[in-house]
């Protein structure tokens, strides 16, 4: 576990320097607020995380054009906090704002778009909308396979998405369960409840895709 109090101490020192040296809407101030928000988010202090993420976002809204990718990142940060709080409809609202910017600012196979679809997939799964979740996860998988090299940690040499730390025989077990007619929703539910990394969700989608 990280030393959050130390991290906060240094980020707050940096913020004080920035506040004295920079105009109130300078992008570096937004970065300082964002860093503090990230620490509070990791600590589980979501109200404080939102406070600082929103301060960062207000500066970005004034300093950047409306379709700047940094604004999308800001929406994603706020969405992630609502996700952690269990307010999935609110999280989805901010993830959708981020996605609209990515669609305008990024090429169609950019990894940021894949991450955006992954956010939609994970949120829909948590809301028990499993068919929608699977659709978004497969979109994410498709983009990652086009945009990342085979040697990338997300993707193994055979095009199967990496699942670091998966138990031995997990692939075989998934295959046997699928051939036995286990509902696809089960895989999504397991992925949401047990695993918490992007590799796991994408591996899940890849496995289901192969079992169809």
TrEMBL record:
The keyword Repeat applies. The keyword Repeat applies. Pfam families: TPR_12 (PF13424). It comes from the Eukaryota. InterPro entries: TPR-like_helical_dom_sf, TPR_rpt. PANTHER family: NEPHROCYSTIN-3, TETRATRICOPEPTIDE REPEAT PROTEIN (AFU_ORTHOLOGUE AFUA_6G03870). This is Uncharacterized protein. It comes from Rotaria sordida.
């Amino acid at each position: 576990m990280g030393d959050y109090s130390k991290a906060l101490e240094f980020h707050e020192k940096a913020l004080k320097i920035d506040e004295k040296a920079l105009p109130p809407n300078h992008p570096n101030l937004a970065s300082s607020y964002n860093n503090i928000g990230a620490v509070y988010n990791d600590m589980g202090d979501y109200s404080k995380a939102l406070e600082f993420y929103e301060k960062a976002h207000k500066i970005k809204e004034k300093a950047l054009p409306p379709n700047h990718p940094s604004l999308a990142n800001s929406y994603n940060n706020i969405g992630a906090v609502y996700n952690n709080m269990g307010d999935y409809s609110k999280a989805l609202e901010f993830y959708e704002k981020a996605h609209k910017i990515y669609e305008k600012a990024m090429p169609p196979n950019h990894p940021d778009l894949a991450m955006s679809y992954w956010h939609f997939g994970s949120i829909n799964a948590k809301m028990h909308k499993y068919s929608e979740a699977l659709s978004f996860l497969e979109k994410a998988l498709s983009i990652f396979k086009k945009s990342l090299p085979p040697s990338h940690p997300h993707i193994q040499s055979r095009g199967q998405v990496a699942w670091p730390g998966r138990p031995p025989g997990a692939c075989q077990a998934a295959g046997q369960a699928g051939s036995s007619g286990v509902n696809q929703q089960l895989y999504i539910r397991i992925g949401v409840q047990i695993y918490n990394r992007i590799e796991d969700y994408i591996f899940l989608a890849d496995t289901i895709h192969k079992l169809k």
